[in-house]
Fold:
Amino acid sequence: MNLYERIKEIKDDETKGIIDDRVWIPKKIKEDIIVNKKNEEIILNIIPKIIHTSFFMINCREYRNELATKFNKLTDMEIEYL
Structure:
């Protein structure tokens, strides 16, 4: 038995009886929707619209909105799936 077969065997033993996280069940999707909505709110609250650094003013509005939109899109896709 080579090393790769042994590693695969160990991983198979570790994952026996564990539900695969990739399986989409309604309960898991609903939990994920709630988490994504919270993450969207956190991003909008933590990242400021503008950052002042000495003589410069950095506009973060686009990056902030882009990150929040990604969580919003994930939520929309999951709602569609349900």
